[in-house]
Amino acid sequence: MSGTSPEPDRRIDRNLFVTVSGPPGCGATTLVEGIAEALDCGYVSGGELFREIAAERDLSLSQLIAETGESEEIDRALDKRLRRIAEKWGTANKAFVLESRLAGWIAGNRADIRIWLDAPEEVRADRTADRAEMTSEMQVREVIEEQRYKSYYGIDLSDRSIYDLVINTGRWDAESTLELALTGIEGYDVESDEGAFDTPDFEV
Questions:
Q1: Binding site membership for ATP: which residues?
Q2: Which of 26, 35, 135, 155 is the residue whose CA sits 20 to 30 A from 143?
């Protein structure tokens, strides 16, 4: 999947709160930008908040990642920012997109549609090869995050049951992935919704 955001061929007039989650290199940022363009709404990414915290503390991404392994304070600071955003937009009755690996869990039942993206590890490694944060560092961060989610919140990140759409972005390009997501968003009808999987709330 290219890192260039595809231009959506359609605009969707829906006041839905959408979350997008997945590991590094899954194409989440590209998809979020496309969905936000189609819905004509704003979005926030977990990576953006992580970089914001790093800047506030005058740390590089690598330094902040290292510190997350030593103290839960940084992790919880990020998750609290995500939760505040989820609480705001979960009751706003306006379109918004929230992206982070934990966004679907943190938003929980506040979200209208939750999407999980993934791709084979070698595909994701190739996509992230030119980023400031090296592939090896991202892999370490993945392991650390999985452990902390289980330790802090009792969350099993391998449980995909809470997501409404699960897409392997290694099988489709960016434009086709966006079309798949937009089809689900546009076709969602609250009147015929027979129920999402319940997501228990938790303290962050």
A1: 22-30
A2: 35
Token code pair at residue 34: 């496309």
CA gap 174, 132 in Å, rounded: 22
Binding-site residue positions: 22-30
CA–CA distance from 149 to each of 21, 75, 117, 138 (Å)? 14, 10, 18, 16
Domain coverage including residue 151: 17-183
Instruction: For residue 12, tell me if it sits in a domain.
Output: no
In tens, the pLDDT along 143-166 reads: 777 888 888 999 998 899 999 999
* Structural domain includes residue 203: no
What is the crossing angle of helices 61-68 and 135-153, to 10°? 30
Flag whether 193 is in a domain: no
Q: What are phi and psi of 42, to 5 degrees?
A: -90, 170
Q: What is the reported pLDDT for 6?
A: 60
Structure tokens, 25: 């290199």
Name the domain count of the chain. Answer: 1
